[in-house]
Amino acid sequence: MSTSVVLITGAGGFLGSLLAQALENDSRTPNLHLILADIVEPKAPPNVKAITIKADLTDKTQINSLFETGYGVPDTVYCLHGIMSRGSEDNFDLGLKVNVDSVRFVLDAARFKGAAAGRLIKFIFTSSLAVYGGPLPDVIKPDTIATPEGAYGMGKLAVELFVNEYTRRGFIDGRIMRLPTIVVRPGAPSAATSSFMSGIIREPLKGLESICPIGNSLDSSELDLAAWVASPSTTMKNFIISKHIPAEKFFPHTRVVCLPGFTTTIRQELEALEKVAGKEALKLVKFKDDATNRRVVSSWPARFDNSYAIGLGFAVDEGGMVPVVEQFKKDVEAGLA
Ligand SMILES: NC(=O)c1ccc[n+]([C@@H]2O[C@H](COP(=O)([O-])OP(=O)(O)OC[C@H]3O[C@@H](n4cnc5c(N)ncnc54)[C@H](O)[C@@H]3O)[C@@H](O)[C@H]2O)c1
Known about the structure:
It is built from twelve helices and twelve strands. It is of the alpha/beta class. It has two domains: 4-180 and 230-258, 3-Layer(aba) Sandwich (Rossmann fold); 195-229 and 261-301 and 318-333, UDP-galactose 4-epimerase, domain 1, CATH 3.90.25. The strands form three sheets. It has a seven-stranded parallel β-sheet, with helices on both faces. The protein has a three-stranded mixed β-sheet with strand order 7-9-11. A two-stranded parallel sheet has the order 8-12. Helix 6 packs parallel to helix 8 (266-277) and helix 8 (266-277) packs across helix 12. The model has no long low-confidence stretch (mean pLDDT 95). The structure holds nicotinamide-adenine-dinucleotide. The site of nicotinamide-adenine-dinucleotide has 25 residues, from helix 1, helix 4, strand 5 and strand 7.
């Protein structure tokens, strides 16, 4: 039986840990062997062959070690590690070191270790809608030019250029997914500017208060601020799909794909919370308008043309925020979130 060796960097994070689980359930990834790496000790899902490695990926030696495990050279790398938006904005040098320099080291390891093993490694990189900034059309299309206005988006765009060039040169088989904001994220609030978009659902569903930094009350017009989002479950489907798309299906000039998402407003999120969990849950959301946060989130595009991504086979959430909140409530009740 053929073996699939998959390396996930950032495997201790939100999406990395969900991905390990999703790969285990993917019938098109036979005899899975996972290499899970993160600066914090990653956890392997039960019933899967996995090596967990605590590694600082700003160190080339530690990166090389990920390609030299007993499982051999991976056939696929999901490159997910990183410093999130607010974190890389507040600490520019750390953001560059982790989000750009270390990803270049991983790309080079994939290039050279892959070549030595006679293997073109699939390199799947998670980019973000933070690559966009400046004046934008109402709807973002694949040919909309990305002009980031923050360190996080700049770093993502810089890496996209490397992944595309390494792919063009035949060093790797790159796939770049520009992700919507993923809601609802479990666990503690993150260093992402968008963190509150999960917090205003997550905390009330757990009986806790949450601060909404947009608007000062439920009547504030600021709550009509729109955002481009996707659920964790659809995102995981798409992470798996990205691995199976035949290379020739992508545009010849770029491997960038804006993953499908949907538009929600902060008000629609709160309405979904009330519908799923009632007025008492909604009362747990407190308002403290933060002009900086509001400015950054307002600068992100909130409407995309999904047709290229859907044509490639990617999945899209149906039904808006309500099913997303319902799913998260089930996860909380099952002790999974
Ligand atoms: N969650 C979202 O809404 C979203 C949206 C757009 C893009 N993304 C991208 O998806 C990827 C995963 O996002 P996430 O939400 O799981 O983030 P996360 O913060 O939960 O996970 C990132 C992981 O990277 C690890 N990491 C940081 N520095 C490291 C280092 N020097 N060496 C090794 N590991 C290090 C962290 O420990 C963490 O576990 C990131 O690249 C992120 O930029 C996420």
